[in-house]
Specification:
- The protein has 426 residues and is an alpha+beta fold.
- It has 3 domains: 73 residues; 168 residues, no CATH class; 171 residues, Arc Repressor Mutant, subunit A (Orthogonal Bundle), CATH 1.10.10.
- It is 39% helix and 26% strand.
- It is built from 17 helices and 17 strands.
- Helix 10 packs across helix 12.
- The chain starts with a helix and ends with a helix.
- Pfam families: DUF6996, DUF6997, DUF7226.
- GO terms for molecular function: translation elongation factor activity.
- InterPro entries: DUF6996, DUF6997, DUF7226.
- Keywords: Elongation factor, Protein biosynthesis.
- This is Translation elongation factor.
Length: 426
Amino acid sequence: MNLTDKAWNNLFDRYNILDEIQENGTYEIKAKTIREEREPRLMAKFDHSNNLPKLFKEYGLSILPLTRSSYVIGDFDVYKKVTYDNKIKPKSIYFPPHITTIDPTNLYSESSALHCAFVTGMIDEVLGEEAVQTISGRMSSKEFDFDIRSKKGFDHTVNIKNAQVEIDGGYESNSYFMLIEAKKESVDDFLVRQLFYPYRLWQDKTPKQIKPVFFTHSNDVFSFFVYEFTDDRRYNSLRLVEQKDFIIAHEEITLEDILGTLDKTTTVAEPQIAFPQADSFTRIVDLLGLLVENDLSKDHITMNYDFDDRQTNYYTTAGIYLGLIERYINDSRKEVMFKLTSRGRKIMASSYKQKYLGLVSSILEHEPFRQVLIEYIQSGYPPEKSRVVEIMKRCNLYNIESDSTYKRRSSSIFSWIDWILDLTQA
């Protein structure tokens, strides 16, 4: 268990929180009570369901702020699943050449990605009107009530009074006011509160139609999920209206580029580290992007991004396998930390085409991936799983013994090769 898990276990035991929830449906807790174990800002903000403490996951619980100094715990349905429509081809947008203070190849924070989206006209296109940014940052929610769905099928009424609200970007046009919650990685879900509280606050402050938008910047694709609340009083009335994807115009990657990279890349001996069990290479790229800004601890990755504890292990290990991430111990805090290697940092600082071909090369240095790609291109279709396992068994992979493990790990080969070939369609 991490520190947050242990702290919540202690609080649940000390104050019989689970018994109170089972009897009354919810439990209100003060920030000063949470502070007996850890700072509330570390204990009560879980942007994705993956981030929830183990005890919350076990009993289907979540937590919402009521005021600046109190929270409510209950079996609330607080998250919205995000499904990326892969049939949408991102629209290519040109970056204005007169802008020198934004580097579109180096967008490794939520704010930089949003600034880039604004100066390139993506925001205007999503709204359908010319817009200006008018707000961002922290503010007070004021007072309002709402109903939220229980996982058992009934509603709870929640009363909010001056809770803290944080808005990543607010953009106003003639007819609309768009509120954006932004993430710098692809996600499986998000916390609806991050749109609902700002929506309810600004609903009373502007006569314009409010457009709540969830935004992600992942693998250089800007994705806008435009929503509406069909019932202003109901937290769970969020409905997806449309998804719009954009990408900054760049030099295209062709199959010839992939073949050229394959030809120039020399294979290396298999490292003495677990063979990747990380099926989404997109998420590896996201993790590399997060590490551009700062070295991150294992707990920080698990608690702040859409990774559970197991996924953090899988994806950091995959980055180490590729020679792009390294692991070390922070002596002062005795924490496991991760950082980019010099090679990883060089690749992530490159232009779009060179970055992705550099990532391709880091994959194709490894014989199993190289051989599968060659056979895929030669035949025009992916090899059978049995053939991929046969290739893997010839490559002296570290610490894989059973056939079931070979079969399970082969899924990473299939998905990474698909990722490489999809680059030619971006």
